[in-house]
């Protein structure tokens, strides 16, 4: 009963004042963004107990990191019906009304498990994903192949750039050894057009914080599931690009894995450690287990979770606090990131 009352109160507040608080407008882009929430792996058929917790954090941006539905179909009517079911969730509707929503897909919402550029309905699926994100009909995203995008918030000196990478549309097929994925140095993750776009977005960027997201994990190398590590040449190219362009305050966020964890590497050229914060899933997770990750910091979490970034603009040097949170205002992991 307590939770239902809180939901109703949050919903009333969200509906009462949300339209004027949106940041994703020409004027609103100058508002300083300090709180960003993100998550992945939301099965539209399952209970969704985290939206009230997310609403209570009053995020200024919500980022979907893939498996935003479990579509798994080449039938666009099927995918649309599943998106509609997710979008009709009353608590998610409250979030949409109070908070700008951006995001990118992973595989199940793309249309096929573990899929890449070989998926035959990717163009049609892209439009449904953009519909789900409420992307305007005249947006350049509608005519550009791939689901990647960039979003900039805040005034100069307190500017955040969110870069969302599409690890599906252009990605070469996975190399398999039985059921396990194995590294393929000859395969590519992003495709040349997306690589060129990414370099442009990073080169000379005036943002003070760069949040770079993708459906699959960037840094882990050892587990046999999907990851950038299955494309080692692309993974190294990505890290080398960060070393070359030296963006201020970069952090990575990812989903997919049905677990949450924090990974860290040190890169030449960057004066700060690079973290990959994985948050998954919103509706279901793996059974507790152990798996290797030489880059992991802290514990691996196998409980329903979402990620929360708080940028500490008043601290010098600049820093961010990233939390992996769960139901009933629970915090499982906290990572301070100093830039």
Summarize this entry quickly:
By secondary structure, this protein is α/β, with parallel strands linked by helices.
Relevant terms:
disordered N terminus, single chain, 6-stranded mixed sheet, 339 residues, Purple Acid Phosphatase, chain A, domain 2
Topology:
Layout: H1 2-17, E1 35-39, H2 51-56, E2 61-65, H3 76-87, H4 90-98, E3 101-104, H5 122-132, E4 149-153, E5 160-165, E6 175-177, E7 180-182, H6 192-202, E8 209-214, H7 232-245, E9 250-254, E10 260-265, E11 274-278, E12 296-301, E13 306-312, E14 319-326, E15 330-338
Parallel strand pairs: 1-2, 2-3, 5-8, 8-9, 9-11
Antiparallel strand pairs: 1-13, 4-5, 6-7, 10-11, 10-12, 13-14, 14-15
Helix content: 10-25%
* Unreliable stretches covering 5 or more consecutive residues: 1-28
**What is the highest CATH level, the class?**
Alpha Beta
- C-alpha termini separation: 43 Å
CATH superfamily: Alkaline phosphatase D (PhoD)
Descriptive report:
The structure is a single chain. With 339 residues, this protein is of the alpha/beta class. 23% of the residues lie in helices and 24% in strands. The strands form 3 sheets. It has a 7-stranded mixed beta sheet with strand order 4-5-8-9-11-10-12, with helices on one face. Helix 1 packs parallel to helix 4 and helix 3 runs parallel beside helix 5. The longest helix has 16 residues, at 2-17. Residues 1-28 have low confidence and may be disordered.
């Amino acid at each position: 009963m307590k939770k239902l009352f809180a939901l109703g109160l949050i919903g009333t507040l969200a509906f009462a004042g949300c339209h004027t608080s949106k940041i994703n407008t020409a004027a609103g882009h100058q508002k300083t963004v300090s709180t960003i929430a993100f998550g992945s792996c939301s099965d539209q058929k399952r209970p969704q107990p985290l939206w009230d917790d997310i609403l209570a954090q009053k995020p200024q941006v919500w980022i979907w990191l893939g498996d935003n539905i479990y579509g798994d179909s080449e039938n666009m009517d099927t995918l649309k019906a599943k998106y509609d079911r997710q979008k009709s969730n009353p608590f998610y509707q409250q979030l949409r009304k109070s908070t700008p929503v951006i995001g990118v897909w992973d595989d199940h919402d793309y249309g096929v498990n573990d899929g890449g550029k070989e998926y035959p309905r990717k163009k049609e699926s892209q439009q449904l994903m953009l519909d789900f994100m409420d992307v305007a009909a005249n947006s350049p995203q509608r005519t550009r192949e791939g689901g990647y995008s960039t979003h900039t918030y805040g005034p100069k000196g307190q500017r955040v750039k969110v870069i969302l990478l599409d690890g599906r549309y252009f990605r070469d097929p996975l190399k398999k050894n039985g059921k396990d994925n194995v590294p393929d140095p000859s395969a590519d993750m992003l495709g040349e057009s997306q690589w060129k776009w990414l370099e442009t977005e990073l080169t000379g960027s005036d943002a003070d914080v760069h949040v770079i997201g993708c459906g699959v994990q960037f840094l882990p190398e050892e587990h046999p599931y999907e990851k950038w590590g299955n494309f080692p040449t692309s993974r190294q190219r990505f890290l080398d690009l960060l070393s070359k362009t030296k963006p201020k305050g970069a952090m990575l966020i990812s989903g997919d894995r049905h677990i949450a964890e924090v990974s860290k590497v040190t890169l030449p050229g960057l004066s700060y450690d690079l973290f990959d914060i994985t948050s998954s899933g919103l509706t279901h997770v793996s059974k507790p287990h152990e798996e290797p990750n030489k880059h992991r910091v802290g514990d691996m979490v196998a409980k329903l979770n979402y990620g929360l970034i708080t940028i500490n603009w008043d601290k010098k040097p600049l820093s961010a606090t990233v939390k992996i949170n769960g139901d009933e205002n629970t915090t499982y992991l906290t990572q301070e990131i100093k830039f």
